[in-house]
């Protein structure tokens, strides 16, 4: 029996290795490649520099949410993190690195706030990351500036958008991270799904009552690829606070701060953002776990956190072919 078990394990390992060896990435951004296939994607949280990047290069997740909203705005560390991912890569799917989407320290309160902080978006994109998540995206004008600041002036024109704002010189280091010539980076560093060939994924945190009121308009801004309802901040904005709770914010879509996730107002907020995402034909982000991931996918969740067990179960349910 032991011999049979060992042989079976070896066969399983060989088969899995064969699948990984056979898969050839079609895109630089693993997350975009999967969403384009209609497959849900899964993320984990990350921070730090080179050593952290090396450790996270083989993550189970499709992309890493690099948190800058409340952490130090350290572009040197982020650049080193990207280099660490390259050192520890490629992924099992053959991608040079997992996707990296940065949570900005800038909030989308209004157009003026965004325009005065375009430099932050420029600095982040120059590190070679694959996307940005905008917190407190209250108005569509803020989302529009995010998209314009991400694009180059020569990017294909789109109704409702002014020309792109990224400048010459921003492509050098980023192209090295992506492993392509600078000229090719200039063509590919555009927003998906607005540009079908784009490799950059932009998201919105519709995480307070002000953002909720404009959710249908903000999610329809050309160039936005996903959105979430940010239950931690949403609960506070709706007046649902439990000061005895740790108030863990979570990276999106999980429980509300202070146990407010099941309050009727919270359920309505979540439902409204989900409906807005579906109407705009963009992905909806929500936390998932091993017990509810299948139901979440059926409901329309296309971006989830929740750990490897949840991701493994979700991938099996959606009949995903791409390895990690």
Notable traits:
324 residues, alpha/beta, globular, TIM Barrel, 15 helices, 8-stranded parallel beta barrel
User: End-to-end distance, in Å?
Assistant: 31 Å
The fraction of residues assigned to DSSP E strands is 5-15%
- Nearest-angstrom radius of gyration? 20 Å
Described by strand count, sense and barrel closure, the largest sheet is: 8 strands, parallel, barrel
Poorly predicted ranges = 5-19, 246-251, 253-261
- Broad CATH class: Alpha Beta
CATH names the topology as TIM Barrel
Structural class: alpha/beta
- Helical stretch tally: 15
Question: Quick gist of this model?
Answer:
This protein is α/β, with parallel strands linked by helices and 324 residues long. It has helices spanning 2-22, 30-36, 50-56, 75-88, 111-116, 118-125, 140-150, 171-178, 182-188, 209-213, 215-218, 231-237, 264-280, 293-299, 308-317, and strands at 41-46, 63-67, 99-107, 131-135, 191-192, 200-205, 226-228, 283-285, 301-304.
Question: Could you walk me through the main structural features you see in this protein, from its secondary elements to its overall organization?
Answer:
With 324 residues, the chain is of the alpha/beta class. The chain has a single domain, classed as TIM Barrel. It has helices at residues 2-22, 30-36, 50-56, 75-88, 111-116, 118-125, 140-150, 171-178, 182-188, 209-213, 215-218, 231-237, 264-280, 293-299, 308-317, and strands at 41-46, 63-67, 99-107, 131-135, 191-192, 200-205, 226-228, 283-285, 301-304. The longest helix has 21 residues, at 2-22. The radius of gyration is 20 Å and the shape is globular. It starts with a helix and ends in a 7-residue tail after the last helix.
